[in-house]
Amino acid sequence: xxxxxxxxxxxxxxxxxxxxxxxxxxKLIRSHAxxxxxxxxxxxxxxxxxxGNDAAFACDAIxxxxxxxxxxxxxxxxxxxxxxxxVTLIKALQANPWSSSYKFNVDLINNDHAIxxxxxxxxxxxxxxxxxxxxxxxxxxxxxxxxxxxAHYFNPNMIVTPLKLPPREPNSDICxxxxxxx
Amino acid sequence: xxxxxADYSGAFDPTFSHGKLAQETLAKLMKAxxxxxxxxxxxxxxxxMEKWGNDEALDCDIKVWERLVTYExxxxxxxxxxxxxxxVTVMKALQxxxxxxxxxxDIDVRNNDEAIxxxxxxxxxxxxxxxxxxxxxxxxxxLEPxxxxxxAHYFNPSIEVVAxKIPPRSGNEDICxxxxxxxER
Lengths: 182, 185
Hints:
- The complex is a heterodimer of chains A (182) and B (185).
- With 182 residues, chain A is of the alpha+beta class.
- Chain A contains five helices and four strands.
- In chain A, a hairpin with a 2-residue loop joins strand 1 and strand 2 (113-120).
- The longest helix of chain A is centred in the first third of the chain and has 30 residues, at 22-51.
- The model of chain A has no long low-confidence stretch (mean pLDDT 94).
- Chain B is an alpha+beta fold and 185 residues long.
């Protein structure tokens, strides 16, 4: 069966994503990653508008405290990423549903030690544009906790140290930087 | 295809991208991501409901999805080149929605301006029924008709959406919901 680059043709009663070319699937994966980010972001904003930022932040923390382990579990089961070292965590970070929305560099010192630098983060860009300083809570409190949850899913002894967190220095190209070590 | 990865059990690849995975694996990932979206949405709803009650959670849910439905339709139609102002265009967009990966739905296209959509499996409804508080009364009867209309009106504000059947259901064998999409020209 010919692969489709898009769905501009006639209605197909047996439509499935399997019909698309790999290139189209990759575009869909990237757009779904952005969609995931927007679902989370729109919920945060809706709660913030209704109940204030403290309430939104409290809900955000509850949601992700529950979902981080699920994120790591589904990614690692689906892609057979198993282990208890730092490199296993890095592989899960590269492949999880959020990864297409962010850009990061990995300096793998050895299998138990790495530095990860996020060089593009659309959430931070939105927070900086918003200008109300919410990155101080989201990046400096919540993200630290969430990076630990991700690391501890693979190994409770993994140590997560934030080396750089927002607010960024003017013209800094690093959004945040983390040391991961066992 | 040769060289593509069925999974990521091998060595760390500093240049890893989803493009290195086999097509079959990508399809599995997309399904998992669709379920992930549903869970993110569900956990947000529950966390607001637990703290401030169901009215507040439903208000937020409506705000969120009235914005996101338009975003989703725009994203799908531009990415997959789905354009038009008839009902069959709406059906194509519904088929391509990531949400459809988590539901079982049949689409009966009668002609380009009329179709019936039947949801036979809906994990959200199953969760609401299991919870037993009757929240499907609000979510399925108030929110979903608005969202279905919003989806249709993205393509043509004159398309009429009629809920033919919505929860509560008569039993587990019953369909979840059924919608008629129609455009009078």
